[in-house]
Amino acid sequence: MIRTGKQSSFVEMWINLLFILVALSMVVPFLLVIAISLTSEEAILTKGYHLIPPAFSTDAYRYIFKSPMILIQAYWVTILTTVIGTIASLALTSMTAYVVSRKDYRYVKPTTFYIFFTMLFSGGLVPSYILITQYLHLKDTIWALILPGMLSPFYILIMKGFIGEIPKELIESSKVDGASEWRIYFQMILPLSKPALATLGLFISFNYWNSWFPALLYINSEKLVPIQLLLTRMMNTINFLTTSAQFMSGLSIDTSKFPNLSARMAMTVLAAGPMMFVFPFFQKYFVKGLTVGSLKG
């Protein structure tokens, strides 16, 4: 028994060491990104990347925050899109998953096949653009950023697998007590599905937060530009000015002072930073939602 205890402690130590190394492999690159964003451009070009900035500089952030109101407006659009899109997507996903998870639903097989079929084939970019702009008339509206990613068949199937784990006897007993379908859904299914909802909500919010292509297609108004597209435009501007310096000798712009590499990292921090503060609030549901909400046929 003593030998077994020593062996288990030895194995546990190596397992903990392995996970520490894995955690460091994920944390250290992000710390390096922050350090590079606070390093002067000349130091990066001459001394390379360091976890401790050899020459501290905030030029990258000062360039990005040169027009703070535009940045704040872009953050507001992204936050609004993420919140509304995540709530609406979770509502539609859970409702659809609840329907196809019910064995007494007559068309459960064709409906599930239809949902699965849409995972394999999509309508294409041109039909989607025509639908959003000409039929739904959503161009230059906030809904053009929300509707394209609102419903995912993959998330529906994950939610279906989770709801399928709920004993059907609970639903049957609620029906015997006179509960309606809406009451069963809101007062029983949703509270029991908190781990799956939190997990899918995190994935959906990440998708909305990092989305920039719908804005590139459907948004012309500067007031509806999300943060990802705004940062992409800034990065393109910096790249243009730095790569075209030989053609700009007649202008009063010192392109050698433009932060290029440091600005890339600063934009990464600004784009990913807010979502890193959201993740800890969902962490307690994350593992359970992934393991229990497995896919089933």
TrEMBL record:
GO terms for cellular component: plasma membrane. Residues 75-279 form the ABC transmembrane type-1 domain. InterPro entries: MetI-like, MetI-like_sf. Keywords: Cell membrane, Membrane, Transmembrane, Transmembrane helix, Transport. SUPFAM superfamilies: MetI-like. It is a multi-pass membrane protein. The keyword Transmembrane applies. GO terms for biological process: transmembrane transport. The chain crosses the membrane at residues 12-38, 74-100, 112-136, 142-163, 184-209, 261-282. Belongs to the binding-protein-dependent transport system permease family. PANTHER family: ABC TRANSPORTER PERMEASE PROTEIN MG189-RELATED-RELATED, POLYGALACTURONAN_RHAMNOGALACTURONAN TRANSPORT SYSTEM PERMEASE PROTEIN YTCP. This is Carbohydrate ABC transporter permease. It comes from Paenibacillus montanisoli.
